[in-house]
Write a structure and sequence with these properties.
The chain is an alpha/beta fold. Helices cover 39% and strands 14% of the residues.
Length: 266
Amino acid sequence: MFFYKSKITKVCTCALLILTCLLMSGCLKVEAHREFPEETTPEPSAPVVDNRPRVALTYDDGPHEKYQDTPSRTKLIVDELDKYGYHATFFVVGNRVDGTEYPGGAAMVYAAEHGNEIGIHGYTHDVYYDECSDEEYEYEMQKTLQAIQEKIPNYEVRLMRPVGGKITDARVEESRYAIIKWNVDTLDWDLTKPYGDTESINKIVENALRDVADGDIILMHDIYNNTYEATVIILQRLNEMGFNVVTVSELLGDNLQAGVLYERAP
């Protein structure tokens, strides 16, 4: 056994010496690396075309902030939109954003951070724009814009919805915003009591979806009882029906212009 091991060792040593000599003499070459095909830049993929019919859900009079043990309905609605990759437009009341009436600014910021659109509704919600003075009108516009931009600096506000949908033709034409009304009223503002009432919730859903069509602008309010619960069902059904829910600006696209009143997408 001892001799056998020694013999193996000698043979291995000789083989190693021969291999070393061949390498040094250049008779044997070792491949330093493998050649790979040249890398090519992949062709950019074509943009995904979304051919689904689209509607805009719009929420007035908020933002709604947590009250006692009641969570912010604005935030709840945003979370529900997120489940489907949808976005909505919130027309806010300025004194509910800046904390004068109640501190709703955080809920508005939350909505904007999640890709939703913010528009002006008015500062006090006490003034109709077809009968107020020019000074009152400018106050309502400027104070609301200021409240939004203090919470979201440099946010570009493109839309305004007049309180009650009331505004003069002259103020529409002179506006630096697109004026957005609606063609579907869910009447959630009238179906608020009692909270959680199944009949009221189902009626709001019915009003929203009865004749829903591509291009609709749907009116809701994120401050009222039953609106969030109805929204949950509305979003589920719109998704099942193959609709996409988008912001007003996305719905109107290139048609969106300041000084023009829209009730639905053209």
